[in-house]
Amino acid sequence: MAKPTPEYFTRLAALAAIDDPAARQTKPVLEAFSGAEMATVPVGTADDLKLAVERARVAQKEWAQVRPADRAKVLSKFSELVHSRADELMDIAQAETGKARIYAQEETIDVALTARYYATNGPKMLAERKAAGMIPGATDVRVRYIPKGVVGVISPWNYPLTLAVSDAVAALVAGNAVVVKPDSNTPYCALALAELLYEAGLPRELFAVVPGPGSVVGQAIVEATDYVMFTGSSATGATLAAQAGKRLIGFSAELGGKNPLIITADADVDNAVEGAARACFSNSGQLCISIERIYVEKPIADEFSRKFAEYVENMKLSATYDLSADMGSLASAAQIETVEAHVDDAVAKGAKVLAGGRKRADLGPYFYAPTVLTDVTEEMECCRNETFGPLVSIYPVDSVEEAVERANDTEYGLNASIFAGSSALAQKIAEQIHAGTVNINEGYAAAWGSTAAPMGGMGISGVGRRHGEEGLLKYCEAQTIAAQRFIGLDGMTGVPRDLFLKVTPLAIRGLKYLPGR
After folding, report:
1. Which residues are catalytic?
2. Which one in 55, 78, 321, 445 has a CA-CA gap of 20 to 30 Å to 99?
3. What is the DSSP string of 101-122?
């Protein structure tokens, strides 16, 4: 449990899908806890990306002929390797992002569980199936799932293990090759997982990692691959979606969020306090599905606000490679500048700080205290815009109806959370929320960790879904093969054509009496 060694970085750098990486221009990779350079990474070019895609296409043709059950065996072994090598993966995740180890552990568990889920269930989802034909008994219909080809994954810095591979494993079991452009601040997390995939038996060309700037390598991914999976901001997602649309290729994205939490007057306040802290400050608030708005009914608003602020002030922040910290560092100078700007703007315009509201330079250059605001109004930057950091605002409301209305008053629609006095009330509220996932008695993990269920956003929070059957079949083309026998729409042997054409409409209408028609 420590910062990775120079030898570890050298070993992983050699796995980048770049010819002669030692001779290339390099970029410093910083340890987020200290802000100091801990390694360099070779910088890929558009030509490197295109070459990786060409090699992937060759390998993919052979991979597509492998039985899904045999592809799944590779992912099962990969899942076990992630469990057994979890400590080194957590070390690199902490080093590159500054997150507390508890959230690095969350990533390793998620990667292993997602790989296991698709290894177990993917072959069944991909199995050829029969469908009802046009004419019962005379039309035989089969549906097959064909891999797209080469899938491009553009992954972010905030969950660089999970988001580099969790989408990729679904694409791989479906028979595709994958080319990944990791964020430039966190390339070694993707390379660490590539090493384990290769060790599990995956041909190297089927999972290629090309580090480099988004404006170069990311752009080349959209131009060269057959499907693009992106996780990042709504603005960048909209640009990539338009570019994919011009090429008429598939595109899926999990984008930004300004996620609400609703606490009803009959909720268990102490339980809501602990749940809200986890929901707001997991990964230092740098989580697309973290909570940034809390709507609490007025009868308990003062009690909740007091207890929540006290809980948050007592959270342990630390630059340590063990499980003792509640919250770690932010990932970069850019992130701390955004949080500081949002807090300063709100305070200058009249918001009240209940907890935090300050840098923690005594711990490291990118540390910022978890912050709770109240009296936040519309003209403040943090009211509607995503902060993506350890900042949350509390809004007392007169009723559940007001809470729901205000929760839905946003362009976003990624995640939401409900704490209520009864399951029935919580379920009723959840069904009124405009969000792709809604968690009850939990901030985000219940929905995210349920890999059999689809996860994604509404509004400007995303396109498509990851996880579940939807998260796999999006990487396939569905092919329908229909064989007609005995009878067709133009006639039937032995039946006069005029009689056939006269009876056909009546027969078709009568099909509604058959099951499934």
Report:
1. 254, 288
2. 78
3. HHHHHHHHHHHHHHHHHHHHHH
